[in-house]
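Lay summary. Proteins are chains of building blocks that fold into shapes, and those shapes determine what they do. In this project we predict the shape from the chain. Here is one chain we studied, written as its sequence of building blocks.
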Amino acid sequence: VQLQASGGGLVQAGGSLRLSCAASGRTFSLYAMGWFRQAPGREREFVAAIKWGRSDTKYADSVKGRFTISRDNAKNTVYLQMNSLKPEDTAVYYCAADRLRFGIDVKEYEDWGQGTLVTVSS
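And here is the predicted shape, written in a compact code that computers can read:
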């Protein structure tokens, strides 16, 4: 599965952004899609995940109540709506695909997009 992330940019603290991740290829094999992020000097961390065929979602505690993950199966696209952004949300955001699990571990996801940079200024 090929993934193309977009929607990053520069936003002031308290603002909003919506990231998109378009999937192509063997999308019928998908079980879940996730968003991860990596700040400079830090490890890649889980942000949110959604089952491909159901509405089940998971969120990291740090984004719960501020971020919403959703999907449009007709467009093979997953979204991450980010509200009330904070400077600590600054990172490169990656979307990823998992064919077997609905997890939060980076190692569980098989396919990755190229990343999109989100910068939140204070």
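What the prediction tells us: The radius of gyration is 13 Å.
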